[in-house]
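Subject: ER lumen protein-retaining receptor

B.,
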Amino acid sequence: MNLFRIAGDLSHLISIFILLHKMRISKSCIGISFKSQVLYLIVYVTRYLDLLWTFQHSVYNSLMKIIFIGSSAYTIYLMLNDFKPTHDPNIDTFKVEYLIGGSAILALLFPYKWTTAEVLWSFSIWLESVAILPQLFMLQRTGAGETITTHYIFALGAYRALYIPNWLYRYFMENYTDPIATVAGIIQTILYSDFFYIYYTTVSKGRKFELPV
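Prediction pasted inline below.
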């Protein structure tokens, strides 16, 4: 465990808090991609199957996994029930089948071991790297986003970006490498790059977040 890993996890937790706070305060899920939320739930469920046998070895990791799965499932529950009338499927139209299929192919081609758990873990890593695309696509289509929604996306992107120095730290200090997670993390950070730039030049300076449509 190092500072970058802890900062990344905290950023992830903050993104969850911001999302649920936004939905509860506004009593709506306007601007939130249901498809992205489903993809994230798939990511957490397929990655954290080891909860069944590793809780006693790392309380910190196990609690984080439970929080991620539970909060993701709760978000989807709210979007399907309490706030369903506020979700517009005509805007949330990204073809997630390609993301799931592409991630599955990469997982089958490049697992560390040919076991079910390892293939599912690899699948979750590749899928997480692109799970934000439906959300970014929604922003692109509308051309603007609520400030609190953009804060959520920024915190979620920062979480993964912070894992890059974490991997560098582990490489130099622990002689540990994880090529799949590193490459997927870099891809994910690149996907966020335009968003980060516009976020910095608008929201961080008190202006309305707007994307070119």
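The mean pLDDT is 88.

T.
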